[in-house]
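Handout, section B. The chain below has 427 residues.
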Amino acid sequence: MSFTSPVDRRHFVQGTAALGAALATSAFARAAGPNRVSKLRYGVIGCGGRGTGAALNALEASPDVEIVALADVVADRLAGSKQALSELDEPLAKRAKVDAAHCFVGFDAYQKLCALDLDVVILATAPGFRPLHLAAAIDAKKHAFMEKPAGVDPAGVRSVLASAKKAREQKLSIAAGTQRRHEQCYREAMERVKAGAIGKITHANCYWNQGSLWVKPREQAWSETEWQVRNWLYFTWLSGDHICEQHVHNLDVCNWAIGSHPLRATGMGGRQVRVQPDYGNIFDHFAVDYEYADGVRVSSYCRQIDGCAGRVEEIVHGTEGVLYTASGRAEIVGKNPWKFTGEQPDPYTQEHVDLIAAIQSGKPIDEATAVAESTLTAVMGRMSAYTGKEISWEQALESKLDLVPKSLAMGPLAIEPVAVPGKTPFV
């Protein structure tokens, strides 16, 4: 099994050891409510490192979970996931036995999986497919765990918002892969911010600056479409660019702290270092100024360039203090100083603990709406940087931009040119 992210691989390898701790959390205890069912049948759409990792996290979250179906566009990725799940320690592996009849490959595999008798569907494909897959899951009356972001363009965001509305009407739960919202240090920090610990928020800074990521060299047997799908990070129609696929985490925290989405964005960025064809058509750096209501500003920075300073955190400034947050830590400096020192359950598992608690308590949750708004926050920043124009929230939400091809097959697929600010039009 080849994992696409060291975070995913770490969580997968160490996951069995984390099982006891996950089951001991108070959140899991809350899941054992009056509507608790003996088994929750899960299907996984997208069997790469994140999909396989999410399947493990669900198994860790509750002994009621069974992984019974898998779907992916390519066969070897599904086979690798199936094997990895079967090689878990026995307490987990016995709940992850997927027979061949419940394994589906191809661009229509998600439809076949959603037609099965399942309770929950994990959506962990490249983000370009997320809106289509979420709509199918909700139409099939399944609860869903959807990875972030919610899509790659305004058309996809509108679709996810519509699916979230339909899920609420049907009392279905949707959890999202914005794991900071399930991380204890962030939760406690936001409770303090909402209670006024830093006063009135005036501005914030957020960062995801790191080196380059993996590239899968082209193989002769792959069609153009398959090569793009396997290297999905580098194509805007699949990833939304790294401001959307990765930096959405930090933007989501800013929206969470401020309590709303931005009104407009003015961004810049470019493709200075990763200029080879292997890197598709995305940028390697962005900087965006977001304006919120009451003059609140957020300065957003993200970069994927080797040899540069790394930084992944959020800083929220208020009239009475400053909040500093990053994965695993949170601190307030100012009039009401505080530093998180409590227990920190694995947030990747906690996402599923919270979803299961919602399902079994009969109190549905909707995390799709918030992640859709955070996704559009990222998309409007990208659109501004790509075009060189100031983009309002209304312009972004109503934009006709729809990047995902209407029909896909393993064959030729043209690559859209790299955006040029000042020349690329707003659509």
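Note. The mean pLDDT is 92. Compare this with the example in section A.
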